[in-house]
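[Discussion] Sanity-checking designs against the backbone

I'm trying to build intuition for which residues belong where. Below is a C-alpha cell string of 607 positions. I'd appreciate it if someone posts a full sequence so I can compare it with mine line by line.
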C-alpha cells in the first residue's frame, strides 16, 4: 500500500537545477594569454573586452561602515546608508539589504552619459511592489527624469524604464521600456520569481534594451537622452527618489556600470562568468492532491478514518459564497481523500459570533470528542475582525453528526494578550499527557503563540501564552513580516513545529522550530529555531509559495507532509485570477509528499 500512495503523491524526475548561492565569479574570461601571464607575473591584470569602458564596479562581498569600494579603480566609491541592515554572511559574495538600507552612487557615474550599460545580479525578497534595485535621475519626491530597474513590479514582472518627457504631475506616465506604468509605452517583462537573476539594461541615445540571464527581453525606442536629465541627479542602489516607493529588500551581487553599449556576446559572457553553478539532483514534481483547497489539514481518527478539511475558497472578490463554510472529507486511506465526497459540516449562517471569512479549519479528536478550530470574523463581511473560534461535534461521527458553536476561543483570566487582535491558524497537540494550542496573532507583526489547555474544555487556555516565534530572518519578512500556520509533528523524541513565513505569493515558505519531547514546552528556552527555511519556491518544480502545512502518518506510520502551493499557471497570471488580491485567488491547491529525515533526526521537506 505504501508504494501505491507514493505513486499518487508525486512523480519523481531527474532534473538540472541551479544552486541557490553563488560560489564566486570566475575570472577565466578576462582576456589575455594565461601562459604568458603566468610567466611574466602579470596574471589577471589585463582586462578582457567586457571590462573596457567600466566606470564603476561594486563587488558587494565587503561593505564598509561608510563606503562601498569601487573596484574599477576609478574612485567612484558609493556611500553606505543603514549599515546595520546589511548582511554579507547569508550568501557568499553577496550583500542582503533590508529595512531602508541603500547605497548612494556618485552622480558623475551617470551624468551626461548618453550611452550606458548597467549590469546587476539580484535575488529579490521585496515581493511584487513599487521599489527600485538601482536608480539614477532627478531627486524630487516625484522625480521628473529617471531610469530605474525593479526586478518585480506590482504584477510580478521585470521593470526597466526611463522617462521620455517632462510631466511633473505624473512622470511615471512618460516611462518607456520594459513594463512601463503606461503599458502602451513598451513591452511587458517576464515574471521573475525569487531566484538569482542577472539583469542588464543598455541605454543608447535612441534605444533602451533589457537582458535577463543572458537573453534579450526587448528593445524600446526613446527620444530623451540621459544628458537631458540635467546635472542635478542622484543615483542609488536599493531605492529610488520616489518618496512613496519602498526600499529594496533582497540580495545584490556584482554591480557594473559601463559608459558603452555592451554587445549581446559580452552580456552572455558576463552572465556565464557569475551564474550559479549547476548540479544534478533528484527532485520531485508533486501533483495536485485536491485542487483549490488552501490551508489543508489531514488527521487520522480513532475510528480508522482519515479526515481532510481546508479553507473553502473565494473565486474572485465578487464571490458571495467563498470562505463561508467548513468542509470535510473522509476515507480509509490518505489517497482516497482525493476522490472522497466533500460535505459541508457547518456554515457561518449557523452562528451569531462567527462570520465569513472562515479560514484554516483544523479537525482534532481531543479526549474522544471532535472539535474544529478555525478563524472567522466577529462581524459580517469584515475581513479584519478575525479571531480563533471553535465548534464541537454533538456525537462521535464528525462526518454525519451535528455541530455546536462554542464561540470565540477564550484566554485564561489575567492573560490579556491572546485573541484580542487579529488571530488565526490555531492547531492542537498533546505531548507527555499535556495539551497545547498554537496559533498566529498580529501583535505589531504576525507572530506565533502557544498556551496550555484543558482537554475537557479545549476552547479555553489554562495558562499564560508564550511567544514561540516572530519574523526575524530575511525569508520571514518578504513583503509582509509574517509567522503563521503552525503545524506539529512528534518524532523520535523531538517536537517539531513547522510554520509559514512572509506574504502568500511566491515568497511564502516554511520554517521550523523544535524541542525535546521531555522538555518544559512552555519555557521558550526549550525551543530552537532553524535559521534557514525548510521549503521555498526554489525547491519546487512548477509550483510556488509552499506553506500552511500539516503532518499526518500514513497506514505504515510514515510521516506525510500536507501543504498548499500555487501552480505555474497561477504564478504566471494565466489562471484568470492573476489580477485579484491574493485573498480572492482560489488557486492554492493541496499537495502531499513524504517527510525525509537526515542523520540527526531532522525533517527534510525539500527533496
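Best answer:
Here's mine. Compare freely.
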Amino acid at each position: 500500500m505504501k508504494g501505491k500512495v507514493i505513486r499518487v503523491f508525486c512523480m519523481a524526475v531527474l532534473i538540472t537545477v541551479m544552486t541557490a548561492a553563488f560560489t564566486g565569479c570566475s575570472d577565466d574570461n578576462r582576456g589575455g594569454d594565461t601562459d604568458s601571464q603566468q610567466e611574466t607575473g602579470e596574471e589577471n591584470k589585463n582586462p578582457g573586452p567586457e571590462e573596457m569602458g567600466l566606470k564603476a564596479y561594486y563587488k558587494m562581498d565587503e561593505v564598509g561602515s561608510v563606503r562601498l569600494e569601487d573596484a574599477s579603480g576609478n574612485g567612484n566609491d558609493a556611500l553606505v546608508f543603514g549599515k546595520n541592515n546589511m548582511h554579507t554572511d547569508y550568501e557568499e559574495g553577496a550583500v542582503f539589504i533590508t529595512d531602508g538600507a541603500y547605497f548612494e552612487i556618485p552622480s558623475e557615474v551617470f551624468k551626461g552619459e548618453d550611452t550606458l550599460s548597467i549590469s546587476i545580479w539580484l535575488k529579490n525578497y521585496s515581493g511584487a511592489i513599487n521599489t527600485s534595485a538601482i536608480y539614477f535621475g532627478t531627486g524630487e519626491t516625484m522625480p521628473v527624469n529617471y531610469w530605474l530597474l525593479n526586478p518585480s513590479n506590482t504584477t510580478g514582472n521585470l521593470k526597466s524604464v526611463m522617462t521620455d518627457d517632462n510631466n511633473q504631475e505624473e512622470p511615471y506616465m512618460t516611462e518607456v521600456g520594459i513594463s512601463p506604468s503606461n503599458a502602451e509605452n513598451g513591452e511587458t517583462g517576464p515574471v521573475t520569481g525569487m531566484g538569482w537573476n542577472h539583469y542588464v539594461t543598455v541605454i543608447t541615445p535612441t534605444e533602451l534594451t533589457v537582458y535577463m540571464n543572458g537573453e534579450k527581453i526587448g528593445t524600446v525606442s526613446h527620444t530623451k537622452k540621459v544628458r537631458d536629465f540635467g546635472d542635478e541627479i542622484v543615483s542609488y542602489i536599493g531605492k529610488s527618489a520616489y518618496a512613496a516607493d519602498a526600499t529594496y529588500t533582497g540580495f545584490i551581487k556584482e554591480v557594473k556600470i559601463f559608459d558603452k553599449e555592451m554587445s549581446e556576446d559580452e552580456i552572455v559572457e558576463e552572465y556565464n562568468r557569475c551564474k550559479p553553478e549547476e548540479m544534478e539532483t533528484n527532485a520531485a514534481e508533486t501533483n495536485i492532491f485536491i485542487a483549490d483547497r488552501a490551508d489543508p489539514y489531514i488527521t487520522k481518527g480513532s475510528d480508522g478514518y482519515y479526515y481532510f478539511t481546508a479553507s473553502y475558497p473565494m473565486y474572485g472578490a465578487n464571490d458571495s459564497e467563498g470562505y463561508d463554510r467548513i468542509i470535510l472529507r473522509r476515507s480509509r486511506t490518505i489517497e482516497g481523500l482525493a476522490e472522497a465526497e466533500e460535505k459541508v459540516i457547518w456554515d457561518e449562517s449557523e452562528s451569531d459570533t462567527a462570520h465569513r471569512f472562515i479560514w484554516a479549519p483544523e479537525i482534532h479528536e481531543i479526549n474522544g470528542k471532535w472539535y474544529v478550530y478555525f478563524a472567522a470574523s466577529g462581524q459580517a463581511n469584515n475581513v479584519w475582525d478575525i479571531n480563533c473560534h471553535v465548534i464541537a461535534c454533538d456525537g462521535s461521527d464528525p462526518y454525519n453528526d451535528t455541530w455546536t458553536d462554542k464561540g470565540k476561543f477564550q484566554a485564561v483570566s489575567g492573560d490579556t494578550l491572546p485573541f484580542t487582535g487579529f488571530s488565526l491558524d490555531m492547531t492542537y497537540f498533546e505531548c507527555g499527557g499535556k495539551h497545547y494550542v498554537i496559533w498566529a496573532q498580529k501583535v505589531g507583526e504576525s507572530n506565533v503563540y502557544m498556551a496550555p489547555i484543558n482537554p475537557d474544555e479545549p476552547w479555553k487556555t489554562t495558562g499564560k501564552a508564550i511567544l514561540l516565534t516572530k519574523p526575524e530572518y530575511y525569508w520571514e519578512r518578504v513583503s509582509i513580516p509574517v509567522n503563521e500556520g503552525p503545524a506539529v509533528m512528534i518524532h523520535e523524541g523531538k517536537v517539531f513545529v513547522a510554520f509559514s513565513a512572509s506574504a502568500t505569493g511566491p515568497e511564502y515558505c516554511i520554517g521550523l522550530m523544535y524541542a525535546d519531547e521531555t522538555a518544559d514546552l512552555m519555557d521558550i528556552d526549550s525551543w530552537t529555531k532553524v535559521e534557514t527555511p525548510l521549503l521555498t519556491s526554489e525547491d519546487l518544480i512548477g509550483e510556488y509559495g509552499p506553506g500552511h502545512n500539516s503532518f499526518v502518518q500514513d497506514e505504515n506510520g510514515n510521516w506525510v507532509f500536507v501543504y498548499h502551493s500555487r501552480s505555474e499557471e497561477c504564478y504566471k497570471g494565466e489562471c484568470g485570477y492573476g489580477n485579484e488580491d491574493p485573498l480572492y485567488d482560489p488557486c492554492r491547491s493541496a499537495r502531499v509528499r513524504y517527510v525525509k529525515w537526515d542523520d540527526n533526526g531532522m525533517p527534510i521537506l525539500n527533496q
